[in-house]
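FORM 7B: Structural annotation worksheet

SECTION A. Query
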Amino acid sequence: MLTAEILNAPRELRHAFFTREGGVSAAPYDSLNCGYGSGDDRGRVSENRARALRLAALHPDSLVTAYQTHSTRVAVVEEPPPAGQWPRVDAFVANRPGITLGILTADCAPVLLADPDSGVIGAAHAGWRGALDGVVGETVAAMARLGARPQRIAAAVGPCIGKDSYEVGPEFPGPFLAQGAARARFFRPAARAGHFLFDLAGYVAALLAEAGVETIEVLPFDTCADPERFFSWRRTCHEGGTAYGRLLSAIALEG
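SECTION B. Predicted structure
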């Protein structure tokens, strides 16, 4: 379990970026796989989720996750939905204690946000597509509608694929550069001619800043390069596999 310094201080917050360690799943999902959509045994996934939340001193029944589709849709959560009835969104916001917002990733960037002064929290799933389309800004805007102020929000970008691991093709930078020439700083040449290395975490942090967030922390972990601690879709593909686990990131207001 990893945490962000900027989210540790407020006593009313609980949060965690969980690793793949400490669960009950067998290979290739070993061991703390928290994704029902992974193909793993559902009973084992449920136990993994319960173990993770207990480790963070949260009630397992408080967890809300989504059917993530790399969209910009944000849901306001007032109470956990019935088991299995997950909304098709890629971000959540809430202003009630007793609700744990959860994001599942395996290279995409999980973003946890909080404005403790207003009692508003958020969580976003930011892969390259969702980030490019605006999920980060939409999450901050949804928090503001609940009473948060962007300049008071603290946001942490959790473990995701690192800038030394994320090789992309020659067509990839175009849509980002269309947002402005300054986006070029998130790309550098790769060893393969015509290809680039993309800094996803840096890009997400920049989007947070552009949305008015002033307190931002990026955790320095590369999911693709660390098989002992993290699941990675890209690493699995490079190794010729198709099945991989999902990492859970979660945030809650204490009741």
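SECTION C. Observations
The chain has one domain: 5-160+215-253. The CA atoms of residues 120 and 146 lie 7 Å apart.

SECTION D. Sign-off
Analyst initials: ____
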